[in-house]
């Protein structure tokens, strides 16, 4: 899929401009002078890896790649670009899921890489906070926290490349959201360069601050369209000494939700993960992924993977086992396997983490990252397949993931026997629209954790409520009236 | 202090209009027709209580008081007013601290009272959420939650009049913020009418939602300048069965902070309150407030009031006593009194809650509600008196309050022997500016929990960073370009 350039004209979306003209030679020279040879590149080979998203779905061009090393350099870049209305596409680890960091195909946009801003400016073990620059890679940040006996409780598959700035700008999620929240819950302070070139210094970790609109929350999840996040002050927590993992067989998502409520009461804050996996997904994993085995002797229609974390193994195991025993007695669950050691915990998580890979081996499918209120999740999972089947006979749906967050990965496969790719090319857009419409009916979100980027920009504009779209556009128009920051993304 | 009308002209602050002209007879008639006799009033006596803030510092006039009973009526009011650019001042329980709900003196503004929208639309005990309309009084909401075995963990002195809409719009705090956060942490969803008259329905409690800018967080704390909050979906928690309260004597705010860290480690999430009280404030309470007595035999320079809450008294008492015993052994604290029963807990809290009243009895003082990063709080408390004394010889400062939140109530009394009121009239503004400048140097906030309203509007514009002010004005300009919502407040 190629982004479409806007062809040199200035189109208006809402009240902000959609710029597209090549940067002048004078601007490029000024940027080269500012950033030096390590910070400025127009070399096609050097830029190439950063002009395609990691899944290879989006391809773009850039007039130059800018790699500043300081917030002051970022601010100066923005001021220079703002002076002639040149568009800037910020990028961190380039591991996003929705093409949010890929420039368009015009070759007019400037790619602003934050990766060289990779210092951890400070760690305060007593206050349990750390200030990290935008380009710090998540895994490195994990290690830095562990070095002082602390943990940064957000992780995801791309931790080896995802950066703090990108994680903040996409309000990243992961498998520990149930307990610790998404990125915005972990951001104590933020530093960003605004579209007119000023530096917003909101790094001080204030627990209470009622000076008007919360810019920290506004910039978190804004996908670089309102400001370029240059650093964040992040909350850390004590490193856990113990965990307990259980694999449970049960009859339905309703039963899983009821179990989740029992765990809320029985183990409280120790509950860190609650994932559901249907039999079909587990079967696919067992079929396609080497060295996997079923945790339960008797397969169940649905499975729940439960993880508790805390200081003390006994303090976790006792209430967990009591809650699960009561659930067994009450007929709420069919069977339980408790991980006896770290290796068995890892084996359980491998089953969950391999679902996407196994599903790919089963053939092409449309993937949807959606959320609804937690209570409505069983209804969505039960009702959606029938709705889709009525309109698209023979499609097969699979739902798995973060039930505790109301966030499900909802995959739809073409009917058996057809050419899958061709069928999806013909029906995919309408099918996704049907999934998203159902989500919206239930008050849900068409993007639970991946964001909007360029992938969901048009469907957001089509399906979101007029009031919400109006407000998003109004905020963008207010803060970036010239449309310089990440045009073509989100609502650009 | 009288608000100044802008005298019929349209002044521009930033890029949004500052309107002031009387509403036309046609508009008033349309509003009267829409709302009926219970919802529309121009009666001076009926309006009078709502045209002065509860502390009697701000007085205004209104062209009419509008009291809708539904979100649809609010939306229709806004559309009618927007059509001719009439200004609207939203108001809940009228218990704010900064004049944010008091109209100006022009008599041109329409007072929009949300108090008749007082339904609790639903309580979901399993999901631990409830949807309350803007006009629901906090205390009534507490009772409704307790009726289903749950608790809404935010409370404050004005709970008998403060409303949900006002609490959301001011991002209210209180004494349980340490554990449960300010209002924004408890808001799962929001419904609001936007300045162009559309209804933003964001009530669904989504744990994950990455569809761009977070409007929930944007509206929370916006003081009615961006949208009129009509309802909120709020998180509830299990009602606690037990609490433990301790009064501790110690040498300094540094020691208090060190003790707070020990408690973080020792009792974890059970810690719900951590307030500090200097000897001078305790002495004032014992002097002026009947039926109070010192909790400790030997007075200490500083005191900490500690509260733990949880399911089980023993599970609270054991780690609390162990942590305090270790702190005594280490010389971190001088003395401890543990409340032996509910009455002693209440007695301890009465000492804390009576400080403002006792300080008033000591004579006039300038009060500042400020925050700095928790770690810097001891430094601020230690350094600020000397800074003030250098510029204003003889002034006496008292700092008390929510150390655990980095939020201190910082009171400054005139020098002994002068006419206090006259001295404050002459020096008060400069003195407050000196306090706020110090706060800002430390990265802090000139309003920790009370908001900006009209009281701090000018000092915010004077002292806040240009980048932040620019962003606040840009957001306002984007969402309310005509300046209809609560003009003259925050950054209006």
TrEMBL record, chains A, B:
Record keyword Flavoprotein present: yes
Top-rank taxon: Bacteria
Record keywords, A-Z: FAD, Flavoprotein
- Domain FAD-binding PCMH-type positions: 58-239
| Cross-referenced InterPro entries | FAD-bd_oxidored_4_C (IPR004113), FAD-bd_PCMH (IPR016166), FAD-bd_PCMH-like_sf (IPR036318), FAD-bd_PCMH_sub1 (IPR016167), FAD-bd_PCMH_sub2 (IPR016169), FAD-linked_Oxase-like_C (IPR016164), FAD-oxidored/transferase_4 (IPR051264), Oxid_FAD_bind_N (IPR006094)
**Pfam family of the protein (one):** FAD_binding_4
Q: Which family does it belong to?
A: Belongs to the FAD-binding oxidoreductase/transferase type 4 family.
Name this protein carries in UniProt: FAD-binding oxidoreductase
* Species assigned in the record: Sphingopyxis soli
- List the lineage, top down: Bacteria, Pseudomonadati, Pseudomonadota, Alphaproteobacteria, Sphingomonadales
